[in-house]
Write a structure and sequence with these properties.
Blueprint (H helix, E strand, L loop, with lengths): L5 E6 L5 H10 L15 E3 L5 E6 L4 H6 L5 E5 H6 L5 E5 L5 E8 L14 E4 L2 H10 L5 E4 L15 E6 L3 H5 L2 E10 L1 E5 L7 H15 L3
Parallel strand pairs: 1-3, 1-4, 7-8, 7-9
Antiparallel strand pairs: 2-3, 4-11, 5-11, 6-9, 6-10
Bound molecules: 1-O-pyrophosphono-5-O-phosphono-alpha-D-ribofuranose.
């Protein structure tokens, strides 16, 4: 059966969730006020033309790639880490962060070659492997899915590769950045499949982008 409504995927929880909902509200698609925003995984827009899917951040491109969702907002870091067939249609002025390699304040590691033979804890193994290949460095990867900054203090790793936004988590854990692998921000992605309502929403997204860039 053909879906009548557009579907939009956003982060279930995390730093992009509220900013993503505000973006869609600014272009005319707001969450229905009847939604229990702490629990709902699918919720209607207030005029009923679209539904929001609240899903894990790392899964967002999969929903869009398969056409289950038509549009979504996701961090560019997720797209860098995976291989997805989705179209990036706009870069948004929020969610700015960077993927960085950081080491303890008293570490002798100051250049990429110093990472040779060292242990690096990360939740971004693909991006890190690509960086190490480019720098021709051999290091051991320790894959953990969160709170990566704890690893050096526990002597589990000599360095970490993780997202940095304000830098507060690094500071709190006596770590400092030695390299930035890439900069990231929120992006709007679109599925490769057709839906009769897609054109008008795409136009609103691109118009918002043009207005916010002062074009
Ligand atoms: C992210 C990231 C860092 C932290 C950086 O973690 O993994 O730990 O934010 O932010 P800051 O530079 O502003 O301190 P998140 O809070 O998303 O949780 P996680 O550890 O589960 O990834």
């Amino acid at each position: 059966m053909k879906r009548k409504k557009l579907r939009i995927a956003v982060q279930k929880s995390g730093r992009l969730r509220e900013l993503s909902l505000k973006f869609f509200s600014d272009i005319g698609i707001s969450l229905s006020e009847e939604t229990d925003t702490s629990r709902a995984l699918i919720a209607q827009s207030c005029c009923g033309g679209a539904e929001f899917l609240f899903v894990r951040h790392a899964d967002i491109p999969t929903y869009v790639q398969s056409g289950v969702a038509d549009f979504a907002i996701v961090g560019g870091n997720i797209l860098e880490e995976g291989q997805f067939e989705v179209q990036q249609i706009a870069t948004l002025p929020f969610g700015e962060c960077r993927l960085a390699i950081a080491v303890p304040l008293d570490s002798p590691i100051v250049s990429a070659s110093d990472l040779d033979g060292e242990r690096i804890a990360t939740s971004y193994p693909n991006s890190l492997r690509k960086f190490l290949r480019r720098e021709r460095v051999n290091a051991s990867l320790i894959e953990i899915s969160g709170s990566v900054e704890i690893a050096p203090a526990l002597d589990m790793a000599d360095a970490i590769c993780d997202l940095v936004q304000s830098g507060a988590t690094l500071k709190e854990n006596n770590l400092q950045t030695v390299f930035t692998i890439f900069d990231s921000s929120a992006v709007v992605i679109e599925s490769p499949y057709q839906h009769f309502l897609k054109n008008s929403l795409r136009a609103a997204i691109l118009n918002y982008k043009a207005v916010s860039e002062g074009a």
